[in-house]
Amino acid sequence: MSSETGETGKAGIIVAAEDAPPVDKLSHAVLDDLLYNIIHDLVVKVHRDEKVARANTAAIKVEKLALNAIDGATTDHKPDVEIETDAAIYKDGRVTLKGNPLTTTKEVLCPRCHLPRLLHPTDGKGAKKPDPGVIYCKKHPYIEKPGYDIYGQTWVAPGPGRGKKKKDQKLDPSDPSSPAPGAEGSAKDRPPNVLSFPSATCSKCKRCILVTRLNNHMGSCIGNSGRNASRAAAQKISNGSNAGSQNNDNTPPGSQKGTPRPGSRGASPRKRDGDEFDEDGEESDQTVTNPKKKKLKPNALNKKVVLKPKSPATSGGNMKKDKTKGSSMLNVEQKVDDKDSTVQVAPKKLTPNAKGVSPAKKIKLGPAKPPLPSPAGKKGKRDRDMESESSGTLSSPPPR
Amino acid sequence: MAARPTTPASPKNQKVKAPQPGQPMYGCEHLQRLFNQDQATTNTSIQHYKAILRTIFDSIPLIPQTAKTLDGQIVTSLTPTYLCLQCPSTLTEADRTKHGSKKSHRFYVESRSGALYCQMCDDIVWDPTFEELRLKKLGTGTFSNRKRKNEELFETSDPVRDNPTYISSNTTAASCKASGLRGIYNAGATCYQNVVLQSFLHNPILRNFYLSDGHSSTSCETPHCLSCAMDDMFQDFYAIENTNGYTAANILSGFWISEKKAFENLVTTKEQDAHEFFQFLAEELHERNGDGRKPEIGSEHSCNCIIHQCFYGKLQSTTTCQNCSGVTHQVQSFLDLSLPLENLSHKKGKKGASSRPSPGSLTLQECLDEEYIKSDKCEYRCHNCSSMQQARRQTSIKRLPNVLSIQLKRFEYKQGRHERAAKIDTTVQFPLELNMLPYTNRARGQDAKEDYELARSCIYDLLSVVVHVGEIDTGHYLSYCRVGDQWFAFNDHKVELAQKSDVLNSRAYLLFYVVRSLS
């Protein structure tokens, strides 16, 4: 113990009272030493990183000078020249240091691209404005700023159920990672660090789907197992008004009353479900022709009003319904697809997926959502869902 | 490399590390002078440095921490001491200068980290030659370059590949911006996948495997191969400048297409259990990369695939018959350790708050103690007695995996009118550094406590943490991953810096620890 050198340990921060008993003093000294060690280890680590970086910078600089000195005449990595800078000497193809690189070298060059490293974040905590005249290495210090990620990016709120049409229209076309962004230039309204959710291509149907809907889409596009189908059937029986489709026309007549059927397409029953996302569906799908779009839009709008109260269903029930709907849709849609693969199919097909996808947040918040307009009916439906669900799907009870 | 250090025992000449581009040859001018004196000085310096490192890292800390002051007094200190490189003395910081001026010894090794202090610089110097030795000692516990067990995981010593121009002429360097830190978009209740994928992405063993073309998606024939999807994802994370979130479309579709019956339940659009997904992904990747045999959890089956090398360890359960004292061993391989919290947290609750400041909280070590140190009673059919007997069963870890994954079973069945699962929200404190030695079967030996080398091979560092927030049936997954010494919080597409305290205060569900020394 270094207790004899003073009243406490090496750090000298944790000091016992003058008149404290020896055991107190000893324990204070031990704690103080441990604190010293923690700081010591941290400093050694930082010192190593920094000194090695500076030493390498000195070496890189002098090597660059040496390469320049021979004017690129040879591609040899060891030019036969002697160069000396403030920090290092280049001789016989080796670099040796002059003095302590911590004092001789002030900047840090990236060992890979040999460009100077930006030493302060550009935004958020500890930010400094970088010198605009310098080209920095692309590896920047990470940004620490509430609401932004380490690259200073933020995302437009996906906003399920809010500001529907306009929001969605803005969202999709401006998407940077979608293969061919739409012509509308709403992206320009946003600062470049505000990103929107991208779209991805479904590996099966090659359609472009907004990422937040991808899982649901794949569920209906790829994962249409018999189990789902049977559930869909059960769902359809119990809940014909929602899952009705024109191909197997046992839909209760009442459900289609309010639905004007536009021509032979007969897409409307489905349309209602997906109203919310119709727009991005069309937007992301470049094959959609304009006139069609226009024709479909008003439809969707109308239906939306009718069905809106249903969308904020509680999580479990909602998800399940969507899924079943999705799969039931699929059965039908596949057929339509085969017969007539015109563009309108795309938006239609997307619709079932659309609603459930309103990204995870919505699902998560499920239980906390405000009460439904028609609690009794919903509840019944949900219970049925639960029953059908419990048929062996929950093998283990993990936290979900 | 040209300057491969010779094996420690050989009387051959020690060599200074060959000059590397972009790196000075020596740590400072003074070391340069030392190394350029003559071969004998270089030899003794390097040998002494190795000996000192062995003292620091292989013996009990008391030895390097004990110094002799100039007036002959023996002092043991908690704070660092300095071991002279040129003679066998150990000095306190205060006496270092005096020793230097008396004996003109200028170089000392700091006793906590093994770093070299140069008195003439009055600074710690990081010499490439010494630093390589130090890192090797720290990393593998040995100076030799002997082939590593999992050789294909790491760079091989093929003479063609050892040529430094081989790599530069055959590869394109990834951008400095590509750091592997990207979020993954939530494709609709897929956060349970994202957290597991992030922990895979920041797993050094899997990363090295995929980035060294361990599974090439260009030559793989399997349609919708999940391993190819992983390969693509690693490429996108570590080679592309994009900082936007990643869309794991291929993983997702591979997952949907997969015909694993055991995990059929996972294929829904609902929220799922991250642990189940982890098991699914591990088994799927094993099948793509491994011997093609179906892994049976519980059997001793092991193969050389990347997943087995990474995650699989072995458990040994020893059953001792209470009647005839006959002992039977059973070995099982495991992908992860599942630790129940239920009983322990109840027990804790009963014991009362007096024993602990926070009665509701557990430590990871307590959970491990319960499973892998304590024994339990059971009935079993003894071969010797040929009858059912009372027996004591004790499980311990026979082989530790390189990446230890631990699941804290945060769910229980509530007895009652409806049996339903509930989430256990008990805080479980887990360390950044975990010593697994007590839970191995080698800990039973008495001398094990003395064996520092063995102890060090059982030290694990926390690599990533998966956290579940919310209720049992609905909620959200977040994860924390460590890159170097920095922690990052991953929330779907969003990546943020995280403090260690954020990580340690989280209610972990899955923990991934990586072994410190890959030997």
How far from one another are the termini of chain A?
A: 53 Å
- The tally of structural domains of chain A comes to 2
Q: Which strand order spans the largest sheet of chain A, edge to edge or round the barrel? A: 1-2-3
Radius of gyration of chain A: 33 Å
Helix content of chain B: 25-40%
InterPro entries (chain B): Papain-like_cys_pep_sf, Peptidase_C19, Peptidase_C19_UCH, USP, USP_CS, Znf_RING/FYVE/PHD
Protein name (chain B): Ubiquitin carboxyl-terminal hydrolase
Pfam families (chain B): UCH
Region (Disordered) (chain B): 1-23
How would you describe the overall organization of this protein?
The complex is a heterodimer of chains A (400) and B (519). Chain A has two domains: 103 residues, no CATH class; 214 residues, no CATH class. Helices cover 45% and strands 5% of the residues of chain A. Chain A starts with 21 loop residues before the first helix and ends in an 11-residue tail after the last helix. Chain B is α+β, with helices and mostly antiparallel strands and 519 residues long. Among the domains of chain B are: 118 residues, Herpes Virus-1 (2-Layer Sandwich), CATH 3.30.40; 120 residues, Cysteine proteinases (Cathepsin B, Chain A, Alpha-Beta Complex). In chain B, the strands form six sheets. In chain B, strands 10, 14, 18, 19, 20, 21, 22 and 23 form an eight-stranded mixed β-sheet that branches. In chain B, strands 4-3-5-6-7 form a five-stranded antiparallel β-sheet. Chain B has 17 helices and 23 strands. The chains are: A mainly alpha (400), B alpha+beta (519). Chains A and B meet through helix 1, strand 3, helix 4, helix 9 and helix 11 of A and strand 7, helix 11, strand 16 and strand 22 of B.
